Amino acid sequence: MDEIWGLDSETESRTVDVHINRLRDRFRDNPDFQIVTIRGVGYKLVRSHE
Question: Which residues sit opposite 37 in a β-bridge?
Answer without folding.
Answer: 43
